[in-house]
Amino acid sequence: MKSTSSALVHALDLGTGPARVVVKDSIDIAGYPTRAGCAALAETPPATRHAAIVERTLAAGYRLVGKANLHELAFGMSGLNAWTGTPENPRFPALIPGGSSSGSAAAVAAGLAEIGIGTDTGGSIRVPAACCGVYGLKPSFGRLDRRGVMPAHSSLDCVGPLSADLDTLIAFMAAVDPTFSASADNTPPSLCALAVSADPAIRGAVAACLESAGLDSTTCPLPLMDEAYAAAMVLINRETYLACRPWLDSGRLGADVERRLRAAAEITDAEVHEAEAVRRAFAASVDRLLEGHTVLALPTLPHFPLTLAAAEAGQQDLTISALVRPFNLSGHPALSLPLAPDHGRPVSLQLVGRRGDDAGVCRAARYLLARSAATPSIKGDAYV
Predict the structure, then answer these.
(1) What is the per-residue pLDDT across 129-152, written as a single tens digit (0 to 9) for each?
(2) Best exposed site among 64, 142, 170, 294 by fewest CB in 10 Å?
(3) One of 26, 78, 100, 154 is an active-site residue; which one?
């Protein structure tokens, strides 16, 4: 088994099935503390019961092999963690692993597990999936039970899987959610390519993927994307501050997280009210566009990830979530698929579907994967 530095914070051996799973350490596993990568939680007692997603995973016959590392308090996009260590990006070691589910993405990219369970409040599954060159699904909001997940309350957060193989990810969703069925379907998906701002090389790779799959697609604007990003930032800041303020004066928070929490304390009720209005308008805008299309297609990341050296020197990049965070606000399912790298840098395509049609998003991804010359074949930790 190949290892990757700091991807896991606990080794486990729970369950008897052959398929291995790592679980983000913001999710309760009975008998183990949930520390969320934060020194302020170092003395947290072990959880007394499994989170709902852990119960379902074990009942479905999977084997838990580790608790995965993360960006502290799941409140950052780089995946760096000065307390628990930063997971190495196995396929792109000079770059950040992405956050906040950095350990889950790194573990599946390195072959430590077939499935990584992460959480996605503002891109925290899809960003590390894109950075590490694996698949990552943010389900429709509320699809997978969040009981036992930190923070206890969120209007944005979703539990979801990451995997190095799309069919493995789909099989996991079907195993833990009996309402999910992505049976084989060769019907071409109706696709709308969103006109968004992104690095030309990334836009070109996404366009090439869609073109080589032979799909007829239209290019459409999606109103309120920028406003939805800003509104989602307001809400994640307010909700994370309310959940984490007991530790703000502990002296045991990382500098980046402490700065963000102190800034989040300044969010006003008026800003929250305005963000909720944007949520309703943007969700309706996405729904309207999906009335005539199976999925929306756009890059997962607007630009290439930071180098690890730049991030360790203190550079921040929350805008890496500019194309993913809006769909946390709207609640639509979104899947990140790796494409062929560009000069040693990861590129990913994001597909967004109708609320509740997570399986339709996965079927569209399977269709593209089977027909597009721009989607790589991944063996172990290498693209071929």
Answers:
(1) 999 999 999 999 999 999 999 999
(2) 142
(3) 100
